[in-house]
Amino acid sequence: MRLVIATIVALLGTTLGVSYDGYKVYKIVTKTEAEAALLRTFESNENFDFWSSINKVGKPISVMVAPNAQSQFEFILKTTKMHFSVEIEDVESTIEAERRYHQSRRPLKSGRITFDQYLRHDEINAYLAELAQNYPDNVTLETIGQSYQKRDMIAIRISSGPSDPPKPAVFIDAGIHAREWIAPAVALYAINQLVENPYYSLFTEHVDWIILPSLNPDGYEYTWDENRLWRKTLSNGTRCIGCDANRNFGYHWMEDGADDDECSEIYGGKEAFSEVETQNLRDYLADTPNIKGYLSLHSFGQYVLYPWSYADVLPDNADELQGLGEQINNAIEAVNGTTYTVGSTTATLYAAAGASQDWAMGGAGIDIVYSIELPGGGFFGFDLPPSEIERVALETFEGLKVFGQYFVAQKR
User: Fold this and answer.
1) What local confidence, expressed as pLDDT, does residue 106 receive?
2) Is residue 45 domain-shared with residue 115, that is, in the same domain?
């Protein structure tokens, strides 16, 4: 039977298109580690896109499967008596519904913000420019570089002004995975509250906030115009374009949890820091003094994760990170009851060698480092309905406040 299954896996097709007509999403619940191991054999196959990790027996797993692979895949699931159901019969129809919603919205005036729809990259940058113009005493914009397709990667520094000694700074980025639209939206909400809500001026008195709302702008725009479920950057390749930027950082690069197949969703790149976007972030973190905390926003899954991502090992300050992570979770939970799982990335979720958080700690020397996997929603997790943006952003902001204020209490 193992030989039969292995042969079927090897014969499955090899190309995903940008139209998702006929693509299905399966929900699978494994009963044994052997079943989980079998599913892992599909992870590098281009006809399969796993939207949740295969890390714990009994935990539901969602995977999108191309039409030409579905009958063989279902045969394997039935032959091995694995429990499964079809969550989405046609992925394209859900993408079309989202597209129609945004087409129905009136265009924003340049430099304005809303949280009842997602914004394009130019709209994000226009809002940052408007804030810099309206709040020159508190807002500074820094272009950390340009993307592969020459889009400006703009970080905003929110500060009450210089101090002696210099205040600690926290750095937050979002959107490293293009399809995770809620992440830039949450970053924008945090910016909006810290700059435009006078109540939160207290939070910039002793800490500078540096927020990069769009770390992968090319991929993000590609999800609007070409392929809603695109994850990677858009650099040229031999067979496939792009790289998983969150596997491209040069700390334990291309170890466990990354793939050297350039068509894989977790392709780590032809070399560490092959992507201009990861180079820009590396150089900014290395050259900017006094960054004491780093946090990267992702979706989906409701996790507060800390290093290490390259293996199931813990940093020396794991107890501190676990404790602060639980405080972040408690603050978020107090708003709407949303709970997060707190733990190291590999032990809690999966290995992801070459992740930005590992480089932030191991390369840039930042001690307090997290990735937050925001809640999913909609039909396939990455399409959280616009009506839910403000709810998720509001509760997450409570956790971000705890993160920022930690450095005041610790006098780091």
Assistant:
1) 62
2) no
